């Protein structure tokens, strides 16, 4: 967990800020002996804020990607804990595994009780390995499916928080039919009569993300990204070059703002300045407000309308000419 | 044919116009094909009349959507749907060439507007809603057009109370349409959910090769899933997996036969028996019913798609 | 496949018959040279038939067990082939395996199209190993469940042919939660609105049998057995002795006749004299007639009645006092 | 206490009636218990007031149905159902003793009529239909009585619109009732199907040990499945498996924790938190509803059982 006192790791595009911050620190150290530096320090501090705002309002797609992948980015567990510090985690697909890359449970969000599902990338190296860096196995998707069915039975809305590089290209994953696991989830999600809200909180990686992402409303955090293939994969296939990641990021239109513009995403949720990792509590609070607002609307619909709403949403997505 | 030969021929041509021309490479390739598996040279016309199955080793050659439809359907029965539906370039995607140019190229090469042909047809007398993908068009990739055509095909099935059959062959999602492309997985799966609710049958036929977003959506949602012998089918590609796990995979990994052993498909059916199998499947599921089949949920039939 | 010309393997209790048959053979060999033996041979042949009938109408439970386990006993595949020589086999649980110990497919039985499911013990040693001697893995039960759901969707009756020693006590089977797989099958079978007919054709071994055996009608072949635990298991637990298998067989009341008497089984299907393996064609024909007769009745019910019928059947089973 | 001691005591008793008696073995065992896991000696009253959990190593001792119900339910809230339902001997089963005799013995030992107690109760204010099994009675085995009581409990849940909770502890099916016993798996599962159709919740709590026919029926059909720490749970017993596969199994094989890792249960909950967790679960699932919960299928409430 990161709080405001913990130093966050700076990103490439934050370099000018880091330099400026160091200068300010140096001057601050001298303030005691040279109080006349006070105005300079104040000025620099203002400059810092201006620069910061300017940088964050001119991010390139690859900068968003860096923020979305930030090592200190809050993960599903961080949100669930803040929505409801007594939420109850439910485990397993009942068949053979409890995939730690997908977590699920019963969470209260304001006045709503929901079935919450999220990907987990793991925070430290050990956890990351256990969570397979957030890449679910077929058993993870099937665990999620069990939760979908649980929610449907008990008329509980579903919230999914997505932050995954995608499905795992492993041998066992193929042998356990991850294609079917994802496809089946899509079909089951389409069939539900309870509201489903999906939030891309970090990386929305391809089929692995979509497997818990077919929803009545899709939200994206401000710096989250969502794409059909990883930018690295796209660059290596289309440009045959790993250097073209930035270009691929631009080409694919994967940022929250861009995807919102083409109406695939319903709402972009503001992040604290500097990214969600700067303030977990504030981020969770903002997201909670958005979720409650969406749930207020969706829960007013009849079960039939809720399903119809979802089917129509996807029926419309795509661009063709005749 | 080297230059010298060509000049020699030209001279001969000039001397005697009736001289027999040696084949150009293209002509040669058009007349003969070499089997990928047993290396046998096969006269193209023979191969074609053998349903593009090697007569020696039974290797199933990739075939296009047109040939597939000809093989499966009763002559003259196929009525194409949405033949004019085409891709646009919603993201103004540009890699080493623009997506618009690539689309043109793809169509020129394949003779198709997009990677799937859909329609209503009969197979050995059984009426069906049929889709056939074409790997030769843009790697059989699924963008908005494939998604929309699949959705409409399924809707046609619901409306006309017909079983749906889709013969897949695809490299996956079409990157150049970005998130739209990913969302076609959701769109096609949602359409099939409505078909399922309507109690109608969907048979998925997997052919060499079927990968990525297509497998993770409509291709693996069949009530019955059939694959052609030797077809390679999976979510992630073999090379990507080998790079990830740093291990060699078994030779038959991701083949139809491997999938059958791992419980992922119902049956492997050789091409000469495919039409008959499909017809028998359809016939079997048209039973004396205990209750009326009614579509419980129906999506607006008029497809609402944006144009840019 | 065994036909009438193939010599069948004699069982212990058939020993007197074997001896008599040898005598008859000896005499027959002498007939050519000594035609006056003709009446003796005829007499012995009559004796043979009388003895045979007598033996078969006085079988002990353990004799039935031996017949039920006869190496040449017809298995599900033998019946399906005879019901419908173009039946279409369907494979796999769609998730990770195609358990060869459970086979399934689309079979026409007279005027009926049904989803047929059966256990397979395998005929030769190689097949037996592949089929794990008819002991399904969890994936086999889950394959069956997929078939139940297929049948329900397409309003097809379900026929199951049961011949299994039971579930497999293996490590992977436990790790893949065979308890849940069996339990889930029971719940799904209880929910169906299509007719289900289960036939114990050989061994009905405990939970492994029941997993495909919760049905509107339960049939047993004349020499089939059905029990809550294998007689060997019962003997070793209750008598702490492997010698007490015959006693355990008697104590458990596991024969078709006994279970029919206590009304758990609805119909006992006659076998050819000497057991089903004496004449596959005749056995299949007799079973087919029984199945059609039962289907004639069950398909006249409404879907709701069919389910209700099944629920009531099981609601009544059990003996208690208040 | 040996004979000499006893005589000495008797003499002393005769001499002085107020002499303090040494403890008998039974008395000693009644006062002290040794932890199976850490070997600690624990004063029985302390153990009991600690919910029969070892204060040193948290080992969860097996507890009976009565103690379980006391631990979980609000004082005085438990109303037993079907308390007089008893086993008969339908098969006249006889091994080294008759089943009838064994039944008597079992009841004498456990003080129960059969291996489960069922009733309606409240848990931290939440009304539930509750069943608790008792391993001390006939190894917690399921025969006709357990099956019938579970079915009636579930029906009581449906009738009164209550969630159902069953705390299992069982060695499996009761062989002495033969096929009747096997069929209780079907009966209880079918009953739970009706509960499921009615949209009601069923929580299964697995405790040391739960095996065989009970796991392969109602114990693994919970909407939520909870296990107590260290409880051993499985279908086949450890020894049978080791004999079959001729391999040593991992030490923690079939423990609650192992099952959690293998995705088979939702959570492991320590005994002191069990009542609270159950209450919270029930509370959570009593949500503002989008649609009325109606029992779609209902089995005749009057149980029709044969008596012999
Ligand atoms: Zn060849
Ligand atoms: Zn202890």
Describe the structure.
The complex is a heterotetramer, with two copies of chain A (322 residues) and two copies of chain B (308 residues). In chain A, helix 4 crosses helix 13 (280-298). With 322 residues, chain A is an alpha/beta fold. In chain A, 48% of the residues lie in helices and 15% in strands. Chain A folds into two domains: 12-58; 65-316, 2-enoyl-CoA Hydratase, Chain A, domain 1, CATH 3.90.226. The longest helix of chain A has 19 residues, at 38-56. In chain A, strand 5 (196-205), helix 9 and strand 6 (217-221) form a beta-alpha-beta unit. With 308 residues, chain B is of the alpha/beta class. Chain B is built from ten helices and eleven strands. In chain B, strands 3, 5, 6, 7, 8, 9, 10 and 11 form an eight-stranded mixed sheet that branches. A two-stranded antiparallel sheet of chain B has the order 1-2. In chain B, 48% of the residues are buried. The interface between A and B is large, with 57 and 72 residues. Strand 9 of chain C pairs antiparallel with strand 4 of chain D. One zinc ion (ZN) is lined by residues 35, 37-38, 40, 54, 56-57, 59 of chain B.
């Amino acid at each position: 967990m990161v709080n405001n006192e913990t130093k966050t790791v700076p990103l490439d595009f934050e370099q000018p800020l880091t330099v400026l911050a160091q200068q300010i620190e140096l001057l601050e150290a001298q303030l005691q002996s040279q109080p006349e530096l006070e105005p300079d320090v104040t000025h620099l501090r203002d400059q810092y804020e201006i620069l910061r705002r300017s940088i964050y309002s001119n991010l390139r797609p690859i900068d968003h990607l860096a923020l979305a992948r930030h090592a200190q980015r809050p993960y599903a567990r961080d949100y669930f804990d803040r929505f409801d510090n007594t939420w109850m985690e439910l485990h397993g697909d009942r068949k053979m595994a409890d995939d730690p890359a997908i977590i699920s449970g019963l969470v209260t969000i304001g006045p709503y009780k929901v079935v919450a599902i999220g990907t987990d990338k793991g925070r430290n190296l050990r956890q990351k390995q256990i969570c397979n860096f957030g890449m679910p196995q077929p058993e993870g998707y099937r665990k999620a499916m069990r939760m979908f069915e649980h929610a449907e039975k008990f008329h509980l809305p579903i919230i999914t928080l997505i932050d995954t590089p995608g499905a795992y290209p492993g041998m066992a994953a193929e042998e356990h039919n991850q294609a079917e696991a994802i496809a089946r989830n899509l079909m089951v999600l389409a069939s539900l009569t309870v509201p489903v809200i999906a939030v891309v909180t970090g990386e929305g990686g391809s089929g692995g993300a979509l497997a818990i992402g077919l929803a009545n409303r899709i939200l994206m955090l401000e710096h989250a990204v969502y794409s059909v293939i990883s930018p690295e994969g796209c660059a290596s296939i289309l440009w045959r070059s790993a250097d073209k990641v930035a270009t691929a990021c631009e080409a694919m239109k994967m940022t929250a703002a861009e995807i919102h513009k083409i109406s695939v995403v319903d709402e972009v949720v503001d992040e604290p300045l500097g990214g969600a990792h700067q303030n977990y509590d504030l981020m969770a609070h903002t997201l909670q407000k958005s979720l409650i607002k969406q749930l207020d609307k969706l829960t007013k619909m009849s079960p039939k309308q809720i399903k119809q709403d979802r089917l129509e949403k996807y029926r419309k997505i795509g661009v063709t000419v005749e | 044919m080297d230059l010298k030969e060509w000049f020699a021929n030209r001279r001969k041509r000039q001397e005697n116009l009736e001289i027999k021309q040696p084949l150009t490479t293209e002509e040669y390739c058009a007349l003969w094909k070499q089997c990928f598996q047993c290396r046998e040279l096969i006269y193209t016309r023979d191969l074609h009349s053998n349903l593009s199955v090697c007569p020696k080793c039974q290797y199933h050659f990739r075939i296009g959507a047109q040939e597939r439809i000809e093989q499966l359907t009763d002559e003259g029965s196929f009525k194409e749907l949405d033949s004019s539906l085409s891709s646009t370039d919603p993201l103004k995607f540009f890699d080493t060439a623009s997506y618009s140019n690539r689309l043109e190229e793809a169509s020129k090469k394949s003779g198709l507007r997009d990677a799937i042909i859909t329609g209503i047809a009969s197979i050995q007398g059984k009426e069906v809603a049929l889709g056939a993908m074409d790997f030769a068009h843009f790697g059989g990739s699924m963008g908005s057009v494939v998604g929309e055509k699949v959705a409409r095909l399924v809707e046609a099935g619901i409306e006309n109370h017909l079983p749906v059959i889709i013969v897949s062959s695809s490299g996956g999602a079409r990157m150049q349409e970005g998130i739209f492309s990913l969302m076609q997985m959701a769109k096609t799966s949602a359409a099939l959910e409505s078909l399922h609710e309507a109690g109608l049958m969907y048979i998925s036929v997997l052919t060499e090769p079927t990968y990525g977003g297509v497998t993770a959506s409509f291709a693996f949602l069949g009530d019955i899933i059939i694959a052609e012998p030797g077809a390679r089918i999976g979510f992630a590609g073999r090379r990507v997996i080998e790079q990830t796990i740093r291990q060699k995979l078994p030779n038959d990994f991701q083949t139809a036969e491997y999938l059958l052993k791992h419980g992922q498909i119902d049956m492997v059916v050789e091409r000469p028996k495919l039409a008959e199998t499909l017809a028998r499947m359809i016939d079997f599921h048209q039973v004396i019913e205990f209750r009326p089949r009614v579509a419980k949920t129906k999506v607006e039939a008029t497809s609402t798609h944006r144009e840019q």
